[in-house]
Amino acid sequence: MSSQALARPLTMALSKGRIFEETLPLLEAAGIRVSENPEQSRKLIIATSDPNLRLIIVRASDVPTYVEYGAADLGIAGKDVLIEHAAQHPGGLYQPIDLNIAKCRLAVAVRKGFDYSAAVHQGARLRVATKYTQAAREHFAAKGVYVDLIKLYGSMELAPLVGLADAIVDLVSTGNTLKANDLVAVEDIMPISSRLVVNRAALKTRHAQLQPLLDAFERASRK
What we know:
Layout lengths: L2 H5 L2 E5 L3 H12 L15 E3 L5 E5 L5 H6 L5 E5 H10 L5 E5 L5 E8 L4 H4 L5 E6 L2 H10 L3 E6 L6 H4 L5 E6 L3 H5 L2 E10 L1 E5 L1 H6 L1 H15 L2
Parallel strand pairs: 1-3, 1-4, 7-8, 7-9
Antiparallel strand pairs: 2-3, 4-11, 5-11, 6-9, 6-10
Helix pairs in contact: 2-10
């Protein structure tokens, strides 16, 4: 590898919001402070107190893509995002550490009064709206339920209320959004947390730079 490439700082891809906020203590545990808050700045490339590390701010669903194709050396993404990415790009990312941050669950929800248990008998057919089509497909296939998947990117709770779908598969944290829209979670699919992901080529060519950071994240995630 060229000396110019080695001199380039490591690039970490992060998304705004909860993942960014819960990553800050992990970075601080590694002795790294972030120069700006992306919620208050329009900058998409953010410096840190470590000249060997910079952050790029991208959409949560884009973090695996930036890392896999080498635009970022490492990143942090939710298990939900990684499952969907892996369906299209199997084996594309190294996922060494579950950081135990941004915890929630992926669940099935329906409108109140909908008889979910009767609707999911063996051989039944269900219309399901979700952003997480791979996880939903695998879940219902394991139950022997046929699903017509409707991909949505937001306002998932609306789908059962207007007859677009019988059920939704979405992330649930407090459940307040479901409750406010007269929906109820009826089945958990899996717990979700965020993982550190690393570009496979960078792991080999920039191992000396990456490993101390990986070690620091692993220690911090166990506290």
